[in-house]
Design a protein that fits this description.
Number of strands of chain B: 21
Helix content of chain B: 25-40%
CATH topology of the largest domain in chain B: Ubiquitin-like (UB roll)
CATH superfamily of the largest domain in chain B: Beta-grasp domain
Number of helices of chain A: 22
Low-confidence stretches of chain B: none
Mean pLDDT of chain A: 95
Shape of chain B: globular
Number of strands of chain A: 29
Strand content of chain A: 15-25%
Low-confidence stretches of chain A: 1-19
Number of helices of chain B: 18
Radius of gyration of chain B: 23 Å
Oligomer: heterodimer
Strand order of the largest sheet of chain B: 2-1-5-3-4
Distance between the termini of chain B: 58 Å
CATH architecture of the largest domain in chain B: Roll
Radius of gyration of chain A: 29 Å
Structural class of chain A: alpha+beta
Largest sheet of chain A: 8 strands, mixed
Chain lengths: ~800, ~500
Amino acid sequence: MADRPTEAPREGATVLPDPGSEPHDSSRTHVTGRSEYVDDRPLMRGELVCGLVYSPYARARLVKLDLTAACAVPGVACAITAADVARNAWGSIFVEQPILVEQEAQHAGEVVAVLAAESREALAKALRRVHAEWEELPAIRTIDEAIAAASFIGVERTIARGDATAALAAAPHRLSGTLVIEAADHFYLESHAAVAYPRADGPIEVHSSTQHPTETQHVVADALGLPFHEVVCIARRLGGGFGGKETQAAPIAALAALVAKRTGRPARLVLSKDDDMIVTGKRNPFQIRYEVGFDGAGMLLALDAQLHSDGGAYADLSTAIMERALLHCDNAYFVPNVRVRGQVCRTNHHPHTAFRGFGGPKGVALIESIIEDVARTVGCDALDVRRRNVYRPGHDVTHFGQKIEDNCLPALFESLESRCEYRARREAIRSSNAAGTGPLRGLSMTAVKFGIAFTTRFLNQANALVNVHRDGTVQVSTGAVEMGQGVNTRIAAIVAERFGIAIDAVRVMTTSTEKNANTSPTAASAGTDLNGAAAAKACEAITRRLGHLANHLRGLPADRWPSRTAGLGTAPEFVVPEGPPPSPVRFERGAVIVEADGGDAFEIPLPRLLGEAYLSRISICDYGHFATPNLGFDKEKGQGRAFLYFSQGVAASEVEIDRRTGEVKVRRVDLLMDLGRPVNHALDMGQVTGGFVQGMGWVTTEHLFYDDHGLLVSHSPSTYKIPSVQDTPRIFNTDLVFNERNTANIRGTKASGEPPLLLSLSVWTAIRDAVMSERERLRGELELVPIAIPATAERILRAIERETFAAIEAR
Amino acid sequence: MRDHALLHVNGVAREVRGRDAFMMLAEWLRKELGLPGTKIVCAEGDCGACTVLRAFDPPGSSFPEAPFEAMNSCIAIVAAMDGAHVVTVEGMESEGELAPAQAAMRRCHGSQCGFCTPGFVMALSGMVEQHAGEPIDRRVAANHLTGNLCRCTGYEPILEAACSLRTSEAHRVGPRYGTLDRRARARSAMESGFEVEHDGLRFAAPTSLEEACGFAAANPGFRVVGASTDLGVPINKGRPMPETLLSLHLIPEMYEARADDSRVSVGARVPLSRLRHLCADAAPEFARFLDLFASPQIKNVATLVGNIATGSPIGDTLPFLLVAGGAVGVASLGEGDGGLKRREIPMTELYRGYRQLSLAPGELITHVTFDRLGSDRFLRLYKVSQRKDLDISTVSAAFSVKLDRAGGGGAVGVSAARLALGGVAATPIRLPAVEEAIVGTLDAARIESLAELVAGSIRPLSDVRGSAAYRSVLAANLFRRFGRELLDG
């Protein structure tokens, strides 16, 4: 073999990226419409389009399902029912949910059959000809009904510290109440979608809009009766996920795969927004009964709370979501005596599931709402009560026994109080509300302290495949799913930094279970933490070997380099030894530099070194596996180190309420977060504003309405109102603090996906602040007004004009 | 007579026949033309992910070059796009250069998951077509983006992208796509009518009202299709398409809109965005109200007659038409000689029940007229919805009183009133009892008692948008607001 010249350094590869605000790696294809999502895949010849038949009743027995007329429609290829499913049970925590109903539907929208046709028109016609007879059965529709029937999922969990009962009895003041939090839809723009390609000569290939390709692979394989190696699941990108595609994508993919396997033809199942909203679960509704004890200064002494959530018909992730709710009942505040208990209820709703925050927002809503009431009761400003109770030195161990390291909360409160001119605005609002005319205003500042890590320890692992090419470019594959959060861009930045190359010399490849198996879902805000760390480990294995080689080359005359000798075999081959390279090596600006021991530094372009490595039979590819260290939370005892670290922040929201209609405007939001040392500032800011506005929808306008049979009525944007561009805060100041002290995580970053959403609770507490001032003005005495989440215009007007509504409804 | 509809897509002429003609535009672009950049999310015109630009020169018009405007492609029937030029996100780049909206969205991190992004790019591009060369502020930007939902960004980076746009005439796609030859081809095609058929479906577009009325008389089950912003929704949701569709888009008379000293008259094909311009002088309160409802994508294609003809009890324009002496003009084929028979139906007599119109068989609505309200009239229009913009009303109201003497001393004199509510019954209703009681001297105390009467005169229902009690309280409170504004002058 003749000598091959080494590749020249790739042009442009020596320019380092601006670390602060590299655009999303798909931004160019996003704006030109060339980013491919599942349903953008070109139609294959013979491909089938699939549609769902589901129960219109919360609970019903399937008396008869006659698909004869549907299947007789020209162009209809097949119908799949429960009898066609090899293993008709799946579930992330408890394997109990059927893929297709066998005899009894447990929720409205539970799928009983799939039809597949050659055209949408034929499918629509066939769906209209399905004859299903249902016998409607008594259903459990509310948490109260579930409690009465002892209809539960899993066991009750408790987290306790001190003696809440005794401390409550001894407390100078006590308040008790019930907080109601309703469900919310994820409303990712891309509804659930899957295309399955049967391969005669290989595994079935499923393209799915899933946050969890590994679980999707497994559920598909089980449903088809195939071993796992006969299924590949691919997730290129999602048009939003927010938790809604963590578990619930799997059965959708299985249904498409069942059609593909049965017919031997490609099968595509893309849910309409209506079907997506009717079939899939939401954020768990919660009902929380609580009692809190405090002193005359508003210092919290004891909290006793019983949380019930509506898990829907099947367990899904609800028990884990409840655990996170219990772990966040303290939020930013030290409570010496705590007992929080949580029980998931089984009802006849769609199985509720993960949604950004994963239970955390419910715990935080509880304590932030309590603080507003405590403050009014003792006659203090709520911000003072918050600042008195905030975790601080000496009071920095949570109710589950984890010490809060790197506690930024007191500083965040102090900083935002002055930045947002809290005191002056509070006074202005007080006097304007006192007039009783004009819009009613409210102001509230809340915090977030969000624990980062899956509370289930084994999920805190990831793997990555890093393939370095000899021109100095890199392909990285991980189990992370890109859904807008920019996980691929961040992983690329981490890898680019490790090799000292430009970010566009790194391409993060399509996520596929054939490259990365046994992965965890992209969830818990930990996508970059886990997958970035795994990629970094793979990079380090490669850079260690390259470092040794560079050290070796430094002392070698140029004519003895592998590029001159390897083809001829005229020199001994370099073998990489154990341990770090003898002299430290830096990867910078597209070059590799061996530190000089007194003499000149040795520098070699990365592509040249890679060429020499290849010729020396040194691997320039690697696979990294990462397991988050130092985690240990005992769920049964409710104690331990549940989280690696906490993302923290505060936000102050000012709202304006129309006294005549209850409509709300968010006038101003000031938000400050600690996200460590961001990999990409712009992407983090995107998560912050996006998460906040998404949460605003949850606490205000997003209202799910079910008919008398338990079928969702508000199943499209004409009836389900997520925030529009006109709903954004009139003034929206967001900022990140500079914090390099987070040593726990890769590169000193902090996760940003979920935490900002929880700050939107300040909009809800501000609404309560406004309503309670108005009631106090109208009645001349303190009135603590509970308002459920979402605080819709109707609920707000009902709270303000309680007596008017009562009179009308008594007529 | 043509056997096809003709439209241009990104500069390429397409003659459409058969199955394609009855598809929804978005689906056709994605699956048949291989242009999947246009996304379908809600399939009901509420999220804007399917936004494309459309230019359409009405037949027989002497308008200057029709502008490219944003519209929703998910609920538009392809055949009804006859004569239009459609530009999709794939058509926005020019020789590899991103269009200004694309570059700004990228620069400002306006896209996260990317699924809504093509729709936002096209809505922003619609804004560029209209405002090229002008600086863009947040209000203008937000008004152009009201019809686009994003779940990732919180809109801030998108607004920033919009406000960062520095454009010139050269950035408009109009001149690039709306070339003389293409427009001439469309105009010449539109001089003849067409009919397309597929699998039992029929779509007819005649060039004269006489022919249209003849078609209506001969095909009892026909449905008129305009922008199909209402009709398209149930079709996308699995209901069969009506078998016989009639489009009036080739009839020049349908595009007439004028205001004289006493009345405004609007043809069946006049889009709401054009109506809004007309009303800026002729009915300013109505013009302001038009800004609040529907998105630019809808208003650029949907019509006032369409809003009336769908007969929805919460049609946002209907309470206004009820108080403004609205009437619809209808035409049908006369007996014997085949000439046209025209008549007017007052809005107060138009609705027989939920979505039921008192039209005779074979009658077509050609236009709608309403009063220009004089300076002695005090009119206010309100709507309350779960979300402020682009939401169907829980309650909408149109309150108008005739003043007989100027206010002063906290009271005004009312000589007559027309009061209407939407969302509180199966059809929009007037409040005759209150209209009668309000006449006389009106002060704060009487407003309060009349507000009680308003609440007492309605029997609303509870539904997804609010409870019966909420609607009653809202109706009374909106009347209180009206009274307050009236007294405050």
